[in-house]
Design goal:
Blueprint: H1 2-11, H2 21-50, E1 53-54, E2 66-67, H3 70-88, H4 91-94, H5 97-120, H6 124-140, H7 158-183, H8 189-205, H9 212-232, H10 241-258, H11 270-275, H12 277-292, H13 307-315, H14 318-340, H15 344-381
Antiparallel strand pairs: 1-2
Helix pairs in contact: 2-3, 2-9, 3-5, 3-9, 3-10, 5-6, 5-10, 6-7, 7-10, 7-12, 8-9, 8-10, 8-14, 8-15, 9-10, 9-15, 13-14, 14-15
Organism: Deinococcus aquiradiocola
Binding site for Mg(2+): 181, 242
Subcellular location: Cell membrane
Amino acid sequence: MPEALSSLAQSMGISNLAGGGALIVALIFLTALTFTWRFIPGVRDFAVRVGWADQPNERRLNKEPLPNAGGLAIFAGFVVSVVVAWALRPIFIQDVQIQVLAILLGATILVLTGFIDDQYGLSPAFRLAVQLLSAVLLVVNGLHIDYNAIPFLPSVPDAVNQPLGIAITILWVIGLTNAMNLLDGVDGVVGGVSFVASMVLLATAAQFPDRGTAVILLAGLGGAALGYLRHNYNPSRIIMGDAGSYLFGYTLAAVSMLGTLKFSAGASLFVPLLVMALPILDTAQVVVGRLARGIRNPLGHPDKTHLHHRLLAATGQARRTALIMWMVALLCGVVGMIAQGVRPLAILATVVFTVLCLWFVAYRRVRAQGREQEQALTTGTE
C-alpha cells in the first residue's frame, strides 16, 4: 500500500511523499485556512467598533458601511503559516531565506500602505512610490527575471540582459499588484482568483524538487485566501480592502519568481502569465479604455468598466459573477500548467481540489446566511 501511494504521488509530480513534504504542505495550508477563518470575525467586530469600513457610494455594491480590514486577517494567517513552516522545516527555506524575508518585508510594507489608504486615503503617486520600493526590495535580494530565459524573444548581451530583466521584474511586480487591486470590485472575486492562482502555481512548483519554498509560501497564501473567502462570498461580511489585494498581487508576483519564472527551458514564463491572465487583461482593457477617453491618470479614476462590473451587469448576481470569474481563472491556470508540461494527473487533481474547496466555502457562507436570516426573522417576531 505505501508503495502504491508513493507511485501515485510520483505520477502526480510529488517527488518524495515518504519524506513528509506533502504532509507539511497540507499542515501549512490548514494552518493558514483555520487561523484566517477563525480570526476574521474578531477583526470584523473590532473594525465595526472603530469605524474601519467602506461607506456606500455610486461605485460600491454595499448599501451600508462594510468593514474593510479583511486584508489584515489574511496577512496574519499567511504570516502564521510561514512561521509554522520555518519551525517545522527550516531546511526548506535555508538557501533562500533572504528572498523569503524580502517577500515578507515587501508584503508588510504594502499591506500597511493599503490599510492606511483604505482608512485615510493616499495619493496615487505615493502608493506607486511604495510599490516601486517593494519591487526594488525583491531585486536587490536576488529575485528578478532573466530576460534571456524568456522564450521566443531574441537574446541580448549580458550588459543589456540584467538591466532589462530588472525593468521587466519591476513592471511585473507593480503591474500585478495593481491588477489585483483593480479586480477587487465584486464579493469573492479576488479571494477566489487568488486561491486559484496559488493552487495552480503550487501544483506547478511541486513538480520540481528544488521549489519547496515556493510550494510552502503558496500553500500558506492559498489557505489564507480560502479562509477569507468563507466570509467574503456574497453577501460578504467583510472585504479585504487595498491591504488584501496588494498582498495577493505582490506575493503571487514575487513567489512566481522564486519558483516557475526562474526556469529557462520551454514556456516557463507562460505559467504565471497565463495564471494571472484574468487580472492582467482586465487591467489592460481598463487602462486602454480610460486613456482613449482622455484620462491622463488611468489608475486614479475608478469607474465601472472592469470585467467583473460588466459581468455583474449581464448576470445580475454577484455570486454568479464570482463563480464565472473563478472558472475563467482556473481555465487559464490549466492552460498554463499544460504549457509548463505538468502531468495530466496532477492537473486533474489540482482542478478537483480547487473546485471542491471553492464549493465548500461558498456552501458554508450560503448556509450561514440562511441561519442569519432565520435569526433575524425570529428576533423580529419577538
